[in-house]
Amino acid sequence: MRQKDVHTNIMLDLECAAIDTHNPAIIELAAVYFDIDTGEELDSLCTPVSLQSSLEHGLVTDDNTLGWLKREIPQTLKTSQECCISLPQAIMRLSKFVKKSLRETETRRIKAGLPKPYKSQPMIWGNGTMADNTWIRSAYKACSMEVPWKYYNDMCVRTVVKQVWAQTGKDYSLPPLAPPRQGLKHDALSDCRFQIAYIVLARNEPWSEAPTPDPSAIGPAPGTSALAALPVNGGTSTTRSTPIGYPEEKKAPGNVRRTMAVHHSTRRLLSPETSVSRGSTEAEDDCLTAPAVTRPVSLSKRQLLTPETSFNGKESDCEDESPPVKRVDYKLGSGPEFQEAEWLEFLEQEAKER
């Protein structure tokens, strides 16, 4: 069973006199405190905002949007032009509404016998990542007031609904799945209620009815090689998974003492002790399924850089026939010296090979 949401969810909607900017003049503000699990409306706020006050605080308008407001919602624009509720007053009402709703969430849970949600936070929902939430933050900044919720609690209705559509093929914001709208379109309070109705439907979508994805299309299980499941030479892919491990070591003739198993999925992976120089053609290298032609080269542990060793100007020398590199004995404070035990080990090894 899904856990009941502990946060204070508030749907926000603004009517503005510009859209292609981060700081449009606000003419109407509405917010609805609701239960996101059931869609129940718990409280609401709706207030007009003086257009003149928004302009005085540095918010902007554009001619295209003003023309649209006069055609589509002329009464809302007229109310804003005539009302005496300033932008700071409207913002203050919203802040008080958010704090009151947060306290109400705790009270309701206690009355229902649920544990007090110490981690409950106000979640402010807007329809679009760059719309209402961005615009209201610009208004708070213009009024030099603190936003009463964290930036990471700005929530997007459109994102949730589109993700449900992407996974189930059902878009609850559009007919025929969208719930019937109550009230006028582009009325801030009506828009809040409509958005609440269809986001609740989207969240309650029975995910068990969604088509079960093919396990072979998801990829290998954690801890396995992704390339190991690729089809070989155009064959049919299987769901076989190969645990990831270190390259296999084996003896080889000649002076090469250490090599790694050649495999098309690991030929480009270099370890601290092994290196592979490419000997294949460009055509072979571009095809993952083509076997790689490699020339294994060994690196001695003595040639690996550590706090006590250096390459002594011979970084390109990767063969193992040369004497041990010099070391600096920092404890004695002396210059580079050969370690006697290592030198004797090297001579002994050379004698065995001859």
From TrEMBL:
GO terms for molecular function: nucleic acid binding. Residues 9-198 form the 3'-5' exoribonuclease Rv2179c-like domain. Pfam families: Rv2179c-like. Residues 261-286, 304-333 are annotated as: Disordered. Residues 304-313 have a biased composition (Polar residues). This is 3'-5' exoribonuclease Rv2179c-like domain-containing protein. The lineage of its organism: Eukaryota, Fungi, Dikarya, Ascomycota, Pezizomycotina.
